[in-house]
Known about the structure:
heterodimer, A: mainly beta, seven-stranded mixed β-sheet, 56% strand, B: mainly beta
Amino acid sequence: GALVYQYPRRTICKSGTSMRMECQAVGFQATSVAWYRQSPQKTFELIALSTVNSAIKYEQNFTQEKFPISHPNLSFSSMTVLNAYLEDRGLYLCGAGGYAEQFFGPGTRLTVL
Amino acid sequence: GEQVEQRPPHLSVREGDSAFITCTYTDPNSYYFFWYKQEPGASLQLLMKVFSSTEINEGQGFTVLLNKKDKRLSLNLTAAHPGDSAAYFCAVSDSGYNKLTFGKGTVLLVSP
């Protein structure tokens, strides 16, 4: 079956430092990967959508300079939160899409001290 | 872009009662519709995916209704039980199916 793994599941970083998270698709080809953030007590906001062979598209309020994303093949993507601050804490979800399906990983929960 | 409004933000019902959550969306080209359940501290669990061509969809213990004319999507939990207590999110995507727009969520509490 199709599975999406995310690493790490939980992480803590100091304010002003950076952390990298990964998304691994197993059992299907992830032609698109969408990264979402759920801040505390809020809904899921799309950060960016990466489609193979296309430029990564960032949503308003999110930039490549802050959230650089790599999507080098059909099974893997990574995103870094650069210079993390308190407002960056939350659950980061990876949604990996194939044809007419999208599967979510379990998320990476980021705490910023 | 697409905007999704979800109501109510909080809902408390007694065990055995129904719980009704509704979302309205703006983009008439929306094609796929989803309901997710999120338990505390956990990720998203897909309850149901609805295509734009279907209007009534029954799951295990719940019904999802899609009204394309009113651009309204609803989730009705029939005979709710305490295990249904969680946050529920609707989400909408176009036919490209790559990008989901989520509602703000409904926190449901089912008391014994």
